[in-house]
Write a structure and sequence with these properties.
364 residues; alpha/beta; DNA polymerase, domain 1; 37% helix; elongated; hydrolase; DNA binding; 5'-flap endonuclease activity; 5-3_exonuclease
């Protein structure tokens, strides 16, 4: 038996989004936010929990700083590499709540059922290597349609007890839900911080949107901002999506154009995107005039549909049918954190033996 009591806290309305949330609390007061520094290599390995605040923020500490709302991308935190792991989730959540978000509002988002379906119809290789993880089950349990998600129940229960609302919209991946809600949060005057290792979120980076990434090699979270992005890629985030459509994304199973035109690498792609601004502008230009060397020109005209398909797969949707709730923006009550997380680690020690269900076409 799990040491957690699985309470029915979900609000479910047929096709409506699924979410759990704590009772409304006092209005969010906010804390000083971590921002970027002038050096990519020198500032990337910093966390708010260690109070390693950038110099630019120290100079501006007398100015009013807008409050932050964190989005926690749950699914990728449940893996050690490609191996599902509740221990990984527990470790990263503990560090995140204690060192990064603290009392700032946090909205957790998980993938909806069949969330990958639209993208996989466009590209069958999309995230085809991912597999769900399941508790060890008897043969009779495995035959039940309700066995999937035992671990998700534990995850949802832990987050809810830590006063973190959990959002799930069937038919949509967490990335799209985060992108949609982030836009709504920005219109309310907050800044957004997305807690995730997923590079898909780099297309959202701006002065008001940051990413905080788990760094396994350092066992801590680290902020990644607009300045970091420009220092790393020497272009604006607006170009990120177009660039990735050309070079592909091996992690997500999205092939780049170099698979069909080996000479067409990142350097050529970056040069063309920086000149033309976006993939669509580049493709339209290539259709009527020469935009690059013969191999690049031929590739852009011959494989235009290939590149546009990549765009459809990689672009985050920002129009998911989900509305922001005011109670998700309040200061997070942290008084349960220590007990809940301690119980989670004890539970994991008691249930070390996990087996995984391998499927030929698993959802993320």
């Amino acid at each position: 038996m799990s040491i957690f009591t699985m309470k029915a806290v979900a609000i479910t309305l047929s096709t409506a989004p699924y979410y759990t949330h704590p009772q409304p609390r006092k209005l969010h007061t906010g804390v000083v936010a971590a921002d970027s520094s002038s050096s990519f290599s020198g500032s990337f390995h910093q966390t708010l929990g260690e109070q390693s605040l950038p110099q630019s923020e120290c100079r501006d500490n007398k100015k009013a700083i807008r409050k932050r709302v964190f989005f926690l991308d749950v699914n990728p935190l449940c893996y050690e590499g490609n191996t599902p792991s509740l221990h990984s989730f527990a470790r990263w959540l503990s560090l995140f709540l204690s060192q990064v978000s603290r009392t700032d509002p946090v909205i957790a988002v998980i993938d909806g059922e069949k969330g990958n379906e639209r993208r996989r119809q466009l590209l069958p290789s999309y995230k085809a290597h991912r597999r769900k993880f399941l508790r060890h089950l008897s043969s009779s349990q495995k035959s039940s349609r309700g066995h999937v998600g035992r671990s998700h129940q534990v995850i949802t229960d832990v987050l809810e007890k830590c006063n973190v609302p959990v959002i799930k919209v069937d038919g949509h991946e967490a990335d799209d839900v985060v992108a949609t809600l982030a836009g709504q949060v920005l219109t309310r005057g907050f800044r957004v911080v997305i807690a995730s290792p997923d590079k898909d979120f780099k297309q959202l980076i701006s002065e008001d949107v940051q990413i905080v990434m788990p760094l396994p090699e350092l066992e801590r979270w680290s902020f990644y901002t607009l300045r970091h992005y420009k220092a790393q890629y020497n272009c604006d985030p607006e170009s990120d999506l177009s660039l990735r459509c050309i070079v592909g994304d091996e992690v997500d199973g999205v092939p780049g154009i170099q698979h069909v035109v080996p000479d067409f690498g990142r350097k050529t792609a970056l040069k063309l995107i920086k000149k033309h601004g976006s993939l669509e502008t580049l493709l339209n230009a290539a259709a009527v005039r020469t935009v690059g060397r013969p191999y690049a020109q031929d590739a852009l005209t011959k494989y235009a549909d290939f590149l546009r398909r990549n765009y459809e797969v990689l672009a985050l949707k920002r129009d998911v049918d989900i509305q922001l709730h005011e109670e998700w923006l309040v200061e997070r009550d942290t008084h349960n954190d220590t007990t809940v997380l301690s119980n989670l680690f004890k539970y994991l020690e008691q249930t070390k033996e996990l087996t995984y269900n391998y499927r030929s076409n698993p959802d993320r």
